[in-house]
């Protein structure tokens, strides 16, 4: 039987990247003592109690039927209020579409903006699902390589050189997954001006934007005259310990929001109202929750970097903010995939090799630091043991 070409476009290195994580999770389910550091979440933390209580109260009050297609008005207003405060410019509920997490938000945005014959620009190393997500409608991907020695930061010339008359969008992720780097404000300004001048959409994945200290991160859409050209995507997954709740959003001009409404009508028909009630409660206490997560992850990052930096042959790359530490093992003369599989098979630690994040990720390993101090210590010791063996 024949499959649609879409099925082929979503099958590739991005999906292969998770094989090591799935293998580790299966072993853990079978009772093996595996330390899983291959996925981006705080492994031992729960959603805040007040958010859980809001969901339970919502269920008990009958909030488990159909909801508004584009998202409950109260949640869209909560998101709009959040960004009005962050950006210092008015964002209204009509600029917000609620989606099933940031991944679904990006997928839906791609379907509304890109099609066969179009091109979209990615910057390496990119999150593993980006190529398939942007090419799902038939668009071609043009990737901008970066250098580990420069902490994976591109220049505006690097990006501009990839633009053709077929380019319809540039996708950026800052703070970046996997590298943890925050794009400098000058680069953001230049990117906005470039996209405005060329009539190109600038899509900004900002799920990690709460990690930099308040007031130090610049969203492209916050710049004067930028909003009509920008699409901002985020969620409560990482910022509020709600990865499994699947509540995210798109912020954009009203014409795109209307297109997303029509897509949601035939794709998801709205999200569960009780999860949206929980997300509203989470956003109401954002500063406390985000500050707690930021401080804890920063403490762990600093400790992990200090330990890995003591290992001969390991070079820390990026890792400025966010949930990951990325390190370079190219001097060891072993492929990143091989290293990750040996670490899992011989020492029961799962890291994610960055090979599937584009060629710029070759020889780079991504380590989630949202684990217990004890498991992070064990993981660093076992990485050291494997490298000593090599």
CATH architectural type of the largest domain: 3-Layer(aba) Sandwich
Low-pLDDT stretches are none
Which structural class fits the helix and strand makeup? alpha/beta
Q: Give the assembly state of these chains.
A: single chain
Task: Tell me about this structure.
The protein is an alpha/beta fold. It has 2 domains: 5-46 and 288-389, Alpha-Beta Complex (Aspartate Aminotransferase, domain 1); 63-284, Type I PLP-dependent aspartate aminotransferase-like (Major domain) (Aspartate Aminotransferase, domain 2, 3-Layer(aba) Sandwich), CATH 3.40.640.10. It has 14 helices and 13 strands. Strands 2-8-7-6-5-3-4 form a 7-stranded mixed β-sheet, sandwiched between helices. The protein has a 4-stranded antiparallel β-sheet with strand order 9-10-13-12, covered by helices on one side. The longest helix has 23 residues, at 286-308. The relative contact order is 0.18. The model has no long low-confidence stretch (mean pLDDT 94).
Briefly characterize the structure:
The protein is of the alpha/beta class and 390 residues long. It contains 14 helices and 13 strands.
């Amino acid at each position: 039987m024949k499959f649609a070409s879409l099925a082929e476009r979503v099958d590739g290195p991005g999906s292969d990247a998770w094989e090591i994580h799935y293998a580790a999770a299966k072993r853990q389910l079978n009772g093996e003592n595996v330390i899983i550091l291959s996925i981006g979440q705080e492994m031992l933390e729960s959603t805040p109690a007040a958010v859980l209580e809001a969901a339970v109260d919502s269920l008990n009050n009958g909030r488990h039927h159909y909801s508004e297609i584009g998202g409950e008005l109260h949640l869209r207003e909560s998101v709009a209020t959040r960004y009005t405060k962050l950006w210092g410019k008015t964002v209204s509920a009509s600029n917000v579409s609620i989606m099933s997490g940031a991944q679904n938000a990006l997928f839906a945005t791609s379907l509304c903006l890109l099609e066969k014959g179009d091109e979209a620009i990615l910057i390496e190393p990119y999150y593993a699902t980006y190529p398939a997500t942007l090419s799902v409608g038939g668009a071609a991907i043009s990737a901008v390589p970066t250098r580990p020695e420069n902490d994976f930061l591109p220049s505006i010339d690097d990006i501009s050189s990839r633009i053709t008359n077929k380019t319809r969008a540039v996708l950026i992720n800052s703070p970046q997954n996997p590298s943890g780097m925050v794009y400098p404000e000058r680069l953001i300004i230049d990117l906005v001006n470039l996209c405005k001048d060329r009539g190109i959409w600038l899509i900004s994945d900002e799920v990690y934007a709460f990690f930099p200290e308040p007031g130090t991160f610049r969203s492209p859409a916050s710049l004067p005259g930028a909003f009509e050209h920008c699409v901002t995507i985020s969620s409560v997954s990482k910022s509020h310990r709600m990865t499994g709740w699947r509540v995210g959003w798109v912020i954009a001009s009203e014409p795109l929001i209307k297109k997303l409404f029509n897509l949601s009508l035939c794709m998801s028909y709205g999200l569960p109202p009780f999860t949206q009630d929980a997300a509203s409660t989470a956003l109401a206490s954002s500063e406390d929750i985000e500050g707690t997560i930021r401080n804890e992850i920063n403490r762990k990052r600093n400790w992990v970097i200090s330990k890995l930096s003591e290992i001969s042959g390991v070079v820390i790359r990026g890792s400025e903010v966010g949930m990951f530490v990325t390190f370079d093992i190219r001097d060891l003369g072993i492929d990143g995939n091989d290293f990750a599989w040996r670490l899992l098979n011989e020492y029961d630690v799962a890291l994610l090799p960055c090979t599937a994040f584009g060629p710029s990720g070759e020889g780079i390993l991504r380590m989630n630091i949202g684990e217990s101090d004890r498991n992070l210590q064990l993981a660093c010791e076992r990485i050291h043991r494997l490298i000593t063996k090599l």
